[in-house]
Design a protein that fits this description.
Helices cover 36% and strands 17% of the residues. It has helices spanning 26-40, 76-86, 104-113, 146-164, 200-226, and strands at 13-18, 44-49, 90-96, 131-137, 170-176, 184-186, 192-194. The protein binds flavin mononucleotide.
């Protein structure tokens, strides 16, 4: 028995998907912290860094669904990604919010890999029972009114439009605003305003708060797993 009550014979597995073009990004940093947190909780973690692995986000003919054949064999790359999802009890995606949505890199992974016959289109979904956490970093200031809109937009699209559509038993969006060193907000005229660049102790405090918030989202997400269905 591990300290979190999970029987070691049934060790949980997690797929952590990071979607950023820079390894030194805040996104990648929070993804690495998430991996460490999961490992402390007894999870075996598969870290999928889409950019580092050279994932091509563009749809192609091989991976285009064939609506007449849900047994279609997709490209080797896509089939390998499908196996990694199947091996995971939980999936956590860590990404920067772009235009109130997923960045193209992550969106392309969903488009190509969460495909017909695999992720949806069966009476008994293959992904049934899995759980998903979407950790999105956003440049908007936490008190910007857009944050509430962003939360609702992401919940509708990611929880309902993608995860529950694909049979996941639980999906949550953890939104992390204030992710920029210059906080951004819109004024009443739609003008984009930037706060001064944060530095020194203020920046340390900003990043520590983001780390703590990300960790709390993961803790809450894992705790929900312990609640019997
Ligand atoms: C193309 C693009 C679109 C963006 N769209 C949004 C947005 O809709 N809302 C928001 O709050 N921030 C937006 N941002 C800011 C990013 O969310 C922010 O730069 C990122 O989360 C910071 O994390 P990073 O340092 O790991 O890139 C956008 C940034 C880019 C480059």
């Amino acid at each position: 028995m591990s300290h979190n009550g999970i029987d070691s014979e049934h060790a949980r597995t997690a797929l952590v998907v990071v979607a950023h073009h820079r390894a030194d990004s805040l996104t990648a940093h929070l993804a690495r912290r998430t991996v460490a947190q999961l490992e402390r909780e007894g999870y075996t973690v598969d870290l999928l860094d889409l950019r580092a692995e050279g994932f091509d986000a563009r749809m192609n003919t091989e991976d285009q669904p064939d609506w007449g054949n849900r047994e279609k064999r997709y490209s080797e790359e896509t089939e390998a990604h499908m196996r990694r999802i199947l091996a995971a009890d939980i999936v956590i995606a860590v990404f920067p919010v772009y235009w109130l949505h997923l960045p193209a890199l992550l969106k392309g992974w969903i488009d190509r890999v969460w495909n017909y016959g695999f992720a949806y289109g069966r009476s008994k979904p293959r992904l049934a029972g899995k759980r998903m956490l979407w950790l999105g970093l956003a440049g908007a200031a936490a008190d910007d009114v857009i944050v509430e809109v962003m939360q609702q937009t992401l919940e509708g699209s990611l929880n309902l439009g993608i995860a529950y559509y694909c049979g996941f038993s639980h999906s949550a969006v953890g939104l992390l605003p204030d992710a920029e060193e210059r906080r951004q907000r819109l004024d009443a005229n739609g003008q984009l305003l930037f706060d001064p660049v944060t530095a020194g102790a203020e920046r340390e405090a900003q990043y520590s708060a983001l780390e703590a918030k990300a960790e709390a989202f993961v803790t809450e997400f894992l705790a929900a797993d312990q609640v019997p269905a």
